[in-house]
Amino acid sequence: MADEQYGWLDRDMAERLLRGEPLPAVDENVRARAGRLSETLGALTPPPAREDRELPGEAAALAAFRAARAPEGTEAESGQVTAFQSADAGLVRLGRPVDVPRRRSSRRPVRLGLAAGLAAVTLGGVAVAAGSGVLPAPFGKDEPEPGSSVTARVTPRPSGTGAADGGGTGAPEGEGGTAGGGSAREGAGGGGARSGAGKGEAALRGSGAWWNGVLDSCRDVREGKSLDAARQRTLEDAAGGHDPGRVKSYCRTALASPGANGPAATNGNGGKDKGHGKAKGQDGQGKGNGNANGGGAGGNQGQGNGNQGNGNGGGNGNGGAGGGGPGKGHGNGKGNDVGGDKGPGHPGGGGHAHGPKRP
Amino acid sequence: MGDDAELTAAVLAAQGGDEAAFRKVYRAVHPRLLGYVRTLVGDADAEDVASEAWLQIARDLGRFSGDADRFRGWAARIARNRALDHIRMRGRRPVIGGDENELTGRAADSDTACEALEALATDRALSLIARLPQDQAEAVVLRVVVGLDARTAAETLGKRPGAVRTAAHRGLKRLAELLGADAESTGALDALPPQRQPRVRAVTSASVTRSRSRTQKDV
């Protein structure tokens, strides 16, 4: 009886419906019923993605794509069986063997690491942007200037979490700092995720203390004093190269920036931001990182920053560090205020690291 | 078919390492793949499972060969395997042919009335699909949602094309019955658009119902 009733749904009609093709000329009743069926099927079909908009998961897929094409040398060979593999083994019974032959398990961590890094970058974008400026841009620019933004987040944030804005940058292995900040400009950011390393240095970089150190070094250089290796290196990092001409030019700009001297003030707060790395803990590692950068920045920019002197703190957190490590993070932000007008400082943001995040 | 030609070209370029092409492939295929995965694992886990599938697709892309349709089929097979792994690990049954409640619930997350309506329609369609036997549901979804032809859908499922064709056809019939029943019960059919036609049950034609003959049902 059902068959009788649904006789209109013959093979041809079924094929058309399955393909989403227009229905043939049929009588009203059939049309109504076929239409209902076709609407239901249409509701199942996802709307096509807009070409210009990134879809969820896209970044991770791209990271995997890149990782898969990385030179073989970067992937350690190993014989371990991954979850994927073992899982697939059982699938065979369902049909034909999966068409995914051998895989190198070791790639997975790399991929995930990249994916995590990428995620960190994406998430951290805002923060990075906000915090940018702190670090000298290592790339390009003959006349390096000590950043110029900072503004983004001037508002004081009382609490200590920096977290909120996400951000961690932190470079992939270790030097968080550098990457962190610097890159901000390019968006790079850096995956923090990976090894955790974030290190304090990272934090430092964005901080007022770091900036002050750079300025001191610049002054010394200007006065003809020689720097010890560590300071020299810091300065070169800041300038983005060790060519003396570059360093000099960098220093000129740096010392000329408002931050360099004075109390300017305005922002006082620097610190705030960011900290916090988001990187998700993906693979086990803790990741964290963030680095903050914070605000510190202060320094620069125009805004006077008063900070200078005081470091602003910055957030920093960094947690990073750790990969794993639980704990690490520190936040810190210190307050800064000093300089500034703004007031009473709000403690910087502290970073927040969250180290312990391990999944 | 311009779309297919484009996808075919993008897949090739991606195999050559072109990132922009890979992105294009992702955007073209992901929504469909996600729609399919959702019918297998439910809404809550669909994105995770789909993204696992993409990791694998990205990694194994170099070994794939074929056109757009085959690519969709290949991607669907990978997604299916990831979904079945997921189900196995969770010790659950596929949503399809199982608990329809897991499929639904998206309407509540919608931001706008319009989206909510769409989500309702989708939820409702999914819950109907969930009432089909699994082989029928999957055949229908692979054809309709993933956009595979009968042959590719068969490859994806590891069955013969005839079997998949039959399963899809039966699935549609079953859906039509369910829709008819719902329409009749006038129940709370919130999601469906107003019925424009009175439901006349005239037997409209003398068409032979071939599907009645049970040809290799489930191979």
Structure description:
The complex is a heterodimer of chains A (359) and B (219). Chain A is mainly alpha-helical and 359 residues long. Chain A has a domain at 115-339. Chain A has helices at residues 2-5, 11-19, 28-44, 58-68, 83-89, 107-131, 176-184, 199-206, 208-222, 229-239, 244-256, 307-310. The model of chain A is unreliable at 73-110, 120-206 and 260-359 (pLDDT under 50). Chain B is mainly α and 219 residues long. Chain B has a single domain (2-191), classed as Orthogonal Bundle (Rna Polymerase Sigma Factor, Chain: A), CATH 1.10.1740. Helix content of chain B is 63%, strand content 0%. Chain B has helices at residues 2-15, 19-41, 43-60, 68-90, 113-129, 134-144, 150-157, 161-184. In chain B, helix 3 (43-60) crosses helix 4 (68-90). Chain B is globular and about 55 Å long. The two termini of chain B are 32 Å apart. Mean pLDDT of chain B is 79; it is low at 186-219. Chains A and B meet through helix 1, helix 2, helix 3, helix 4 and helix 5 of A and helix 2, helix 3, helix 4, helix 5 and helix 6 of B.
Please describe the structure with a list of short key phrases separated by commas or semicolons.
heterodimer; A: 359 residues; mainly alpha; 12 helices; 37% helix; B: 219 residues; Rna Polymerase Sigma Factor, Chain: A; globular; disordered C terminus; sigma factor (chain B); WH-like_DNA-bd_sf (chain B); RNA_pol_sigma_r3/r4-like (chain B); ECF sigma factor (chain B); sigma factor activity (chain B)
Global mean pLDDT of chain B: 79
Number of domains of chain B: 1
Shape of chain B: globular
Weakly predicted, low-confidence segments of chain B: 186-219
Question: What's the number of helices of chain A?
Answer: 12
The two chains with the largest interface, and their residue counts, are: A-B, 67 and 84 residues
First-residue to last-residue Cα separation of chain A: 57 Å
What integer value in Å does the Rg of chain B equal?
19 Å
